[in-house]
Amino acid sequence: MQFGKSNAEKDEQRSNARLEKASKKQVEASLSVDEKSDEKSVPKEAAGQSASLNSFRETIKDVLEEITSLEINTMIVGNIPMSKFDVQEFYMDISDKIAYKTEQGLQNVKESLLERSAQLKPKGASLPQQTSTSLLPKEAAAIEQYRAELTSYNQDLEAYKAAEQIFNDRKNSLDPLAKEQFEREHACYSEISRQLAKLKIPKDASGKIISDAPMIRYFRKLWEFEQSVLNGERIFAQTKFHLDGDLTNKFIDDLFMPSKSRIDPTMTQLVFDLHRQGVENAQKQWSGLITTCVNLVKSLMPFRAQ
After folding, report:
1. Average pLDDT score over residue span 266-295
2. Is 95 exposed, middle or buried (CB count within 10 Å of its CB: 0-12, 13-18, 19+)?
3. What is the C-alpha separation between 97 and 91, in angstroms, rounded?
4. CA 217 → CA 66, 213, 222, 239, 247, distances in Å?
5. Among the residues of 42-175, which ranges form H helices?
6. Residue 190 is inside which H or E element, if any?
């Protein structure tokens, strides 16, 4: 049995790392301007303005947005995954899972394939017939393009058929545990699909998402949600602090119903003790981080734009 690291500790470490990185960038940017102030390639900043300070202030704002509330979760997990979050990899991976591991996703893929098939048929019928006479360059190019599109279509069709077969086999499984896992994953990917549908995700010319700090935070929460489902994690105790003074405690009923719970009764008190200790440690770290951010903002006030 392993106890997962509290979200508060991970958020605090990420926030500290971001602050340290922003401070380093500010110092390097300032040194760069000082050392190269005589070079024409370095633009001079207007009085009372600083690009590096503005960038640093934006970073501070992002950090403050992250710590307006504190959430502490205590979980019992079978294993702790070693994978790290990467926003680009997660987006590509989750898009594929939504397409091939949800009922709606498979339906969308099927409709897309039918449309492509309808477009390919007349295009193939209109191609020039190959004879002993050499084809014109334009005709040869049209044939090559059609063959490439047909190959891509056939590959996507085979991928769809394989995914549909796996989906139906898991959905109709007679193994209760396997079916329960399938339903959990299907609900997970359906929910993530619903959340992504609400976002306007900007992309560059190559199709990669253009992610800013709020977008990365949002995707990270979706990634953590997926990881909790895949690894069978259950939140047994949860505490939330808010800056307006609200405090919410939640505990699953398994902790209070030993006769119906799969938890060993001797472990119940251990869960309570670990959660209480986690809450105390997280609250101290949270308060210290807020104090640090407030002091940094106060230090930057004299350098604000006039």
Report:
1. 85
2. middle
3. 10
4. 9, 6, 9, 20, 23
5. 51-66, 87-100, 103-125, 137-171
6. helix 176-197
41-91: pLDDT as tens digits? 434 444 445 566 666 666 666 666 666 677 888 877 666 667 788 999 999
C-alpha 293/C-alpha 223 separation (Å) is 27
Provide the token pair at 90: 């997660």
**Cα–Cα distance, 69 to 220 (Å, whole number):** 16
Q: How long is the chain?
A: 306
Tell me the whole-structure pTM to 2 decimals: 0.61
Distance, in Å, from the CA atom of 154 to the CA atom of 152, rounded to the nearest integer, reads: 6
- Rounded Cα distance between 208 and 210, Å, is 6
Cβ neighbours of residue 248 closer than 8 Å, sequence gap 6 or more:
238, 239, 240
Show the beta-strand stretches assigned E in the chain. 2-3, 69-77, 234-242, 247-251
The span from the CA of 73 to the CA of 230, in Å, is 17
Instruction: Identify whether the C-beta of residue 89 lies closer than 8 Å to the C-beta of residue 217.
Output: no
Tell me the Ramachandran region of residue 245: left when phi exceeds 0, alpha when psi lies from -120 to 50, beta otherwise: left
Residue 289 to residue 293: CA distance in whole angstroms: 6
Say if residues 74 and 237 touch (Cβ distance below 8 Å). Answer: yes
Q: Specify the 3-state DSSP secondary structure of 85.
A: coil
Enumerate the β-bridge partners of residue 75.
Answer: 235
CB burial of residue 220 (10 Å; 0-12, 13-18, 19+): middle
| Amino acid identity, position 42 | V
Is the pLDDT assigned to residue 2 strictly greater than 60? Answer: no
Instruction: Report the distance separating Cα 28 and Cα 31, nearest Å.
Output: 5
In three-state secondary structure terms, 192 is: helix
Whole-angstrom distance, CA of residue 13 vs CA of residue 18? 9
